[in-house]
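Deliverable D4.2, example record:
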Amino acid sequence: MAKKKNYHGAVALERSSFVPAYFNNQYNDNDYDVFEDQWANTVIGTAIDTKVEFTQGEGVKPKFELKDKTITGDAKVNELKKYDKILESLIEIDDLPHVRLNDHLDDLQRNALVFGRGVLAFEPDWQNLMALKPIHPRDLGRVFVHQLDWSLSSVHAYQKRELIKAEDMIYLVNFENSPRRRSMHYGFSDIQRVVGQSQALRRIMEFDVVEIVESLWAKRAMLTVDQEGMTENEKKSDLGIIRDGLKAGAFNVINAKKDEINFFPLDATPEIAGLMSITEKIEQMIIGNTKVPAPLLGREEEANMATLQGKIRLFIAGPIKQQRRWVEKCLVRQWYERNLQKIDRNILEKVRVTVEFEPIIIESWIDNIDALQKLKQVIPGLPDEEILKLAHLDELTDKIKQMKANGQDNILKDPNVMQTIEDNATTPDLVQKAKEKKQLAKS
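Output generated by the structure prediction step:
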């Protein structure tokens, strides 16, 4: 069987031993219209946006790891320093005015969660990159695969005459090979499992609640009208005049003879409390499906700060970690490794490129210092430079040598560090804690 090289440079067989496979999109344009509508008008959209915000954090940047795990300590640091210029080149590509990778990633992930997939196309191609073009999932068409391993070959987009090749785009797909049969590379929407609930919620909020506000606060009634001797057209006209003259909660005047119009109030009290209870249950089902902590969406107003921080930590350690792994895998294979081929193809033999997400800081600064003190006790050999980095006190790194020269082995006892703690404290409570720690360090 003949062999050839694919665009990764790997040797691949020309033909597959399997029958040619073709995959189909399980969603049609009506489905996409529903997903788009639910994201825009219900709490599911807010939940997905929150998941994206926590995943992306303050942005992403590449990072190198040595493939040789036997190299540790200072030798590892020195070895990685050899590749600093290459790493800086990767970061510079991300920040180029015509690229602005971090400006696009939020929307790329959001589209993949809502519609199942998202694309950043290279204009005109990878070799001659002049711009990143975000393609809306609803403008994407059929997917084509390599028959040897069913990996992505190309995808059709309605704005382009030619197919977009896999090497000429970043293609992020939610559940690349989902349990939905023969749907590989088309993705699965996070809204799919709660479409019914979100549609019901929207109907309640847009129709039922509006009806409650407009009319259900007033009692219902029935009018009987004496229309003896009238033609059918006269009856309809007469009833229309009477109906148009009645306004709920207002004084109404109608020209009529005695006993011609009779008013009968109806005892039809609406179950507003029951409706609101159903609404809450539906919201809980929708939010639970996204795994986003309800307090982040304005629910559970009585949750205290400790409980909220605990839920956020679990959220970051679970769902967000999985989301970051998903985005990282896509960026490494489809962006950073390709760019390294332009800069220095041989570097991938020695290092592995990964993605570092700039985190959203949720803990108070003082709590971080407490945790670092305990960490120093558990791991006495942890370098002071790492302690400062974790405490976001990189500006004190230059003082480490002087402190060590003076025989001081605990950076958290240094007055400069404690002064920085006090300066970074933003509330009276934190300021007081900082002063107490500072006084304790002096004693």
